[in-house]
Amino acid sequence: QDAPDALPLDDIRGDVVFDDVCFGYDEGVPVLRNVSFHARPGETVALVGPTGAGKTTMVNLLSRFYDIDSGSICVDGHDIRAVQKDSLRRQLGVVLQDNFLFADSVMENIRYGRLDATDQECITAAHQANAHSFIKRLPEGFETEITADGANLSQGQRQLLAIARAAAADPPVLVLDEATSSIDTRTERLIEKGLDALMADRTVFVIAHRLSTVRNADAIIVIENGEIIERGSHEDLLAQKGRYYRLYTGQYLSLIHI
Q1: CB 35 within 8 A of CB 21
Q2: In angstroms, rounded to a whole number, what is the distance separating the alpha carbons of residues 50 and 63?
Q3: Do the bridges between strand 203-207 and strand 44-48 make them parallel or antiparallel, or are there none, so unpaired?
Q4: Residue 189: per-residue pLDDT
Q5: What pLDDT is recorded for position 212?
Q6: Is pLDDT above 70 for 5?
């Protein structure tokens, strides 16, 4: 719940600090242990590790879907427990692996990112997300009605609309949670172009199993059993020949053998 004296959080730069964060969904069962890192404004931070390591939990805590057990999470120097949840969440844009689309027009699905966005702002967001070309090929363009949960669109088209929705929101902090994991390689290139434009000048958290998508991150954080076990650039972590090296080379060799 919001604290009685919670203040609004507006016009942030995107400076995010996790300081000795511990958390568990159930008492006595820790999911994150003593997690500390600093994401500076405009940096891209990749969170990698096996399923269940705690990557998505970190994003859930940043969004304040749960309160931490100990430590602190600060955005631009403000402890997120001292700010209004709604104002915090308006500063965050999220693109997931599976995104929910409404039975409404393409335009209105993009506008969901920011409800007061004009038609022109939605069209601009579609251009930025690299979605405009496929939208114009739809029977009614931006006024094409989407069936329940986007069943009349391909997985790649649904993902491009989700990126356009995030572009319309224009958030200072962006979270990409497995945003390209279920996309074929050709479509992934289109989506990555849209993501590159969206990521510019924002603080970005990238959660990915496909490690080819995190190579250009400013910092890579390797999480295992709820703890940070390695951190550094792609080149630094490969040189260490530790957990990241084994994850990365294992994926590369598996691709060669397909």
Answers
A1: yes
A2: 22
A3: parallel
A4: 74
A5: 66
A6: yes
Terminal alpha carbon distance of the chain: 49
- Measure the CA–CA gap between 139 and 102, rounded to whole angstroms: 18
Residue 68 predicted with pLDDT over 70: yes
Encoded tokens for 251? 């994926």
β-pairing, 173-177 vs 92-95, is parallel
Contact call for residues 49 and 211 (beta carbons, < 8 A): no
The token pair that represents 95 in the structure block: 């693109």
User: What are the DSSP calls for 142-206, one per residue?
Assistant: GGPBPPGGGTTS-HHHHHHHHHHHHHHH--SEEEEESTTTTS-HHHHHHHHHHHHHHHTTSEEEE
Entry pTM: 0.86
- Rounded Cα gap, residues 65 and 85, in angstroms: 9
Burial environment of residue 243 by CB neighbours within 10 A (0 to 12, 13 to 18, 19 or more):
middle
For residue 184, what pLDDT band results from cuts at 50, 70 and 90?
low
Q: How confident is the model at residue 221 (pLDDT cuts 50, 70, 90)?
A: very high
Paired strand residues for 16: 39, 75
